[in-house]
């Protein structure tokens, strides 16, 4: 902007050049906007899981009392985890499926660390209900795994989706065997 | 300026049906404001901004807080340690309460000095006193929520004030408590009301603003605008001035939040409430100290026991403010033109500070005497001095207009500047 020696009225227009006032206005508004955005972040972030919630994110489970063929439910991060002590027949059924024919193709070997222990989150991948099948008297669907009462999704003995609206297999949580009879989930 | 200047079709379409843009244009942009407002006129908008900060941080804190006697204290500690930025939200809220009172007290004394309560702004002033009362109730109940020692004993003492009422006192207190002591039902209802009252404050602030815009801001000279040469549009002149003041305020506020967050609080409140043990030194938050001093100062008066008299004095100290427009008999608003009141005003400021200082100490010996004198002066000031000074004081001659007083040539030539600022 060209400085002139002549005083000029305040409302005179200079259309072709950005004025000092334009610069100040844009700079101040931009900084205010950035400041406001930065200030909002702590409020949004405060709604994330807090440190004490995250600290509770792993549990240890004693597997010794779980009989062959028995299924155990434990609570992990507020929702159920299914631990299935599978029988040889169930393992065989899970391994003999043609992987290519599945909706969410995964071989059984990719879903277990030890073949007799299947560990999956008991949360239907459709809309989050807990499938039935933990008790031997529960309906387990046509594939001997789990049956979701909400919308009829059926899972096989590897927890894979076989029929119904669910898009994915039951999720396998991160876990490791800390000793022979103990597993640490999370 | 009736129609919005906007060329935007959508804006015009909406405004034709719902004139929000016209309203904003009228009340925030064109709104004619006296050209001579000083920085003492910043505190209303600052208080409004702090009210918003309190509501926003409060809503997020409420998402993490548990209103139960067994969990409340721990849930606040969890906010401090485990919740992301929980410490920041809580310190903003805690110190925000103190700063809200600082701003409102300055705003209130500004009104006292410049006679902002005088006709035609009596209701504007009275709505302000209503806001102050609501703020006090909200702050008190909020202070109970962390369930520390001061929370509990503060709640016990303040609710017990009502037991001073003859005959029905005790039943009222049990009704307030929902039991026979401050306990879980008390905590729950305080939490509910602490969430509700700020929104009622917002509503009363709305009325306060409607009343303000009816006759416009007062000004340091206390004389009415006599024409366009006396006023300038609110935007950009006072939006900029308010923003600058906000910047200065936020620096001070942030200094407390980040560097001395507990300077204005009481360390006793980091000890969990114990209904079996009263702390040795029990005091309210600083902003209640002058009122607390009055509560403790009043002796037995005739047939009124000291307990009841103290409670009456404390409540009367606020309620007397409602009657200021009629207690002050002077028709001159600004203390600049009132040679006697100008000095007496400062006596009241000093009296309130002295009362606050007395309130912070145990009422023994010397403090009792000063507390009684201070309380006596407070009421003497409003009930005797206010009517009397207006009657005998000879005010200085008032300027003929705002422009005449604040511009070198009486505002004739400079009046041209008092138009909306255009881009140069």
Largest interface: A-B, 20 and 21 residues
Describe the sheet with the most strands of chain B: 2 strands, antiparallel
Radius of gyration computed on alpha carbons of chain A: 30 Å
How many helices of chain A? The count is: 3
Characterize the structure shown.
The complex is a heterodimer of chains A (186) and B (424). Chain A is an alpha+beta fold and 186 residues long. Helix content of chain A is 21%, strand content 22%. Chain A has 3 helices and 9 strands; from the N terminus they run ααβββαββββββ. Chain A has helices at residues 20-45, 51-55, 88-95; strands at residues 59-62, 71-76, 79-85, 117-121, 144-147, 154-156, 161-163, 175-179, 182-185. A 3-stranded antiparallel beta sheet of chain A has the order 1-9-8, with no helix packed on it. In chain A, β6 and β7 form a beta hairpin. By secondary structure, chain B is mainly α. Chain B has 16 helices and 2 strands. Chain B has helices spanning 9-17, 20-30, 43-62, 72-81, 86-113, 122-144, 149-160, 169-177, 184-215, 234-259, 289-297, 306-319, 324-327, 341-359, 366-392, 402-406; strands spanning 32-34, 231-233. Mean pLDDT of chain B is 92; it is low at 411-424.
What's the quick description here?
The complex is a heterodimer of chains A (186) and B (424). Chain A is an alpha+beta fold and 186 residues long. Chain A contains 3 helices and 9 strands, in the order H-H-E-E-E-H-E-E-E-E-E-E.
Helix-strand blueprint:
The complex is a heterodimer of chains A (186) and B (424).
Chain A: H1 20-45, H2 51-55, E1 59-62, E2 71-76, E3 79-85, H3 88-95, E4 117-121, E5 144-147, E6 154-156, E7 161-163, E8 175-179, E9 182-185
Antiparallel strand pairs in A: 1-9, 2-3, 3-4, 5-6, 6-7, 8-9
Chain B: H1 9-17, H2 20-30, E1 32-34, H3 43-62, H4 72-81, H5 86-113, H6 122-144, H7 149-160, H8 169-177, H9 184-215, E2 231-233, H10 234-259, H11 289-297, H12 306-319, H13 324-327, H14 341-359, H15 366-392, H16 402-406
Antiparallel strand pairs in B: 1-2
């Amino acid at each position: 902007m060209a400085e002139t020696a002549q005083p000029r009225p305040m409302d005179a227009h200079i259309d072709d050049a950005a004025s000092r006032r334009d610069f100040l206005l844009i700079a101040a508004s931009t900084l205010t906007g950035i400041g406001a955005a930065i200030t909002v972040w702590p409020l949004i972030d405060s709604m994330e899981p807090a440190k004490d919630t995250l600290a509770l994110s792993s549990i240890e489970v004693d597997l010794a009392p779980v009989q062959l063929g028995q299924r155990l439910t434990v609570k992990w991060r507020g929702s159920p985890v299914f631990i299935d002590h599978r029988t040889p027949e169930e393992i065989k059924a899970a391994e003999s499926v043609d992987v290519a024919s599945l909706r969410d193709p995964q071989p059984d070997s990719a879903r277990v660390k030890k073949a007799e222990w299947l560990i999956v989150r008991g949360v239907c991948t459709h809309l989050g209900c807990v499938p039935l099948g933990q008790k031997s008297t529960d309906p387990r669907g046509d594939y001997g795994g789990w049956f979701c009462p909400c919308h009829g999704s059926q899972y096989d003995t590897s927890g894979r989706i076989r029929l119904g609206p669910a898009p994915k297999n039951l999720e396998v949580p991160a876990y490791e065997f800390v000793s022979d009879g103990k597993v640490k989930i999370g | 300026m009736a129609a919005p200047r906007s060329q935007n079709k959508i804006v015009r379409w909406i405004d034709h049906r719902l004139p929000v843009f016209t309203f904003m244009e009228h009340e925030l942009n064109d709104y004619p404001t006296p050209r001579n407002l000083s920085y003492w006129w910043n505190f209303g908008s600052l208080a409004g901004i702090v009210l918003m900060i309190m509501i926003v941080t409060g809503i997020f804190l409420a998402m993490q807080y548990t209103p139960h006697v067994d969990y409340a204290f721990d849930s606040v500690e969890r906010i401090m340690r485990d919740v992301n930025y929980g410490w920041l939200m809580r310190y903003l809220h805690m110190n925000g309460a103190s700063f809200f009172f600082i701003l409102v007290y300055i705003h209130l004394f500004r009104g006292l000095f410049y006679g902002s309560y005088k006709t035609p702004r009596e209701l504007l002033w009275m709505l302000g006193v209503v806001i102050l009362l609501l703020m006090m109730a909200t702050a008190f109940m909020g202070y109970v929520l962390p369930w520390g020692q001061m929370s509990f004993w503060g709640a016990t003492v303040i609710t017990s004030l009502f037991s001073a009422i003859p005959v029905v006192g005790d039943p009222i207190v049990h009704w307030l408590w929902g039991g026979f002591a401050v306990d879980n039902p008390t905590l729950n209802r305080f939490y509910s009301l602490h969430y509700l009252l700020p929104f009622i404050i917002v509503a009363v602030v709305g009325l306060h603003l409607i009343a303000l815009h009816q006759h416009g801001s007062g000004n340091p000279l206390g004389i009415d605008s006599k024409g366009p040469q006396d006023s300038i549009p609110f935007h950009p002149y006072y939006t900029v001035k308010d923003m600058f003041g906000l910047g200065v305020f936020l620096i001070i506020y942030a200094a407390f939040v980040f560097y001395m967050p507990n300077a204005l609080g009481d360390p006793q409140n980091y000890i969990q409430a114990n209904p079996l043990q009263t702390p040795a030194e029990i005091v309210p938050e600083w902003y209640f100290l002058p009122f607390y001093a009055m509560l403790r100062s009043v002796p037995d008066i005739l047939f009124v026991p000291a307990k009841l008299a103290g409670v009456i004095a404390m409540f009367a100290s606020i309620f007397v403010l409602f009657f200021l427009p009629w207690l002050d008999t002077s028709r001159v608003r600004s203390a600049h033109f009132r040679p006697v009141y100008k000095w007496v005003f400062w006596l009241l400021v000093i009296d309130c500070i002295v009362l606050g200082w007395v309130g912070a100490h145990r009422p023994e010996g010397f403090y009792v005497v000063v507390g009684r004198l201070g309380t006596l002066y407070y009421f003497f000031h409003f009930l005797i001095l206010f009517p009397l000074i207006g009657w005998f004081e000879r005010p200085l001659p008032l300027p003929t207009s705002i422009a005449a007083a604040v511009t070198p040539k009486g505002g004739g030539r400079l009046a041209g500047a008092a138009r909306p600022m255009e881009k140069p």
